[in-house]
Amino acid sequence: MTGDEIEEIFFAHMPVRLTERLLRAVFASHKVAAEECRANYKPPEADNIVGFCRRASLEGFMRDAAEMEGVAASVVRSRMSNWNHTELRSGPVILTASSVQGPCDLVEESEFRSTLARSNQGVLWPEPGDEPEPGSPLYAILLHSKGRLPQALKGYLPGSAYVAFPLPDLSGYAHEINLFDKFPHVVDSLLPQEWDEEAKIRYLRSARKVITA
Prior knowledge:
By secondary structure, the chain is an alpha+beta fold. It is about 45% helix and about 20% strand.
């Protein structure tokens, strides 16, 4: 299964317009979390809680976006967990969201992510010589990270946004889509108007996954 084939399956069930809305949701969640934490907490406590606020905001925005595009969304509490997470489901595709340290970094292992990765991804790993059956499940993760450059306005802008398709053991990704590169018009509409072209280029470059030899 090639990257192009994975993307074809993904976008056949998660419409392009929905994916654009999800990218906007990433930007909105970082902005809302930064503003709310700075308005209601002193800096040490704001630093402690801002990540949780981003998660809460993003997952709510994801459900809103799914409703607008007619995609099923549900809130799921994993077995033996105190945390809820949002799942978007359309055809064979399941999408959740996770924050990572840097652009397209590996997600932290969790019960629900491990279960989804193991029990899905049939489309990626058919038996040798077999073609994946129509409707084989495909698990995707909306990854986002916090900005690291001064231009990211102290947390108001995300550092990156990807859709990645994890291997069954979460040890890597079979394919990745850089949403900043996929939808540059969306990103451009959300960046500060006062930025010059050089600032935009630095920001976009910092949002790309670092390729190591």
